[in-house]
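Something for you to look into today, if you have time. Could you write out one complete protein record for me, on any chain you like? Leave the record below and I will have a look.
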Amino acid sequence: MTALDSLRGRAVIICPPLPEPNRIGALRRRFDPLAEVIPAHITLVFPFESDLAADDLRAHVEAAVRGVGPFPIRLRGVTPIESRYLFLLVERGDADLIELHDRLYTGPLLPYLSAAFTFVPHVTIGRLPTPDALAEALEVATAGTPIDVETRATSVVVVRATADGGPTIETEIPL
């Protein structure tokens, strides 16, 4: 499996604006092979493959986010997951993100909801090949001043994988 395998089909994400330069970007460039492919983001609907028309998906996403306005997000707390991933957790805004996740995984997206995982709002900052590499990345990520970033969710984005495996924005819906 290559790093780009994660970008099959479509996904629904939030790309919160981050200050530049930022430690999140530096960590992602060092530990996440997707850092140069897709910006730092919070995935609401994980990659899925479907024949659902773009207009139908947009209508569903618009209905799911109806009544939700922009909301604050605080990114803080780095944690290892599944001996392979390094997550930057959402400390504020997590309840809003969980609600959006739940709203999106209804109707035409319900078949893509996995019962095997509990949704934990996060930004992936590392995808590591081994548990030892993960431990090293965690040490680097937690050294010094803790990551503590205040930002806002302002839109929901549907991304689609391109033929070369990179993402393209299919639609963006403001909150």
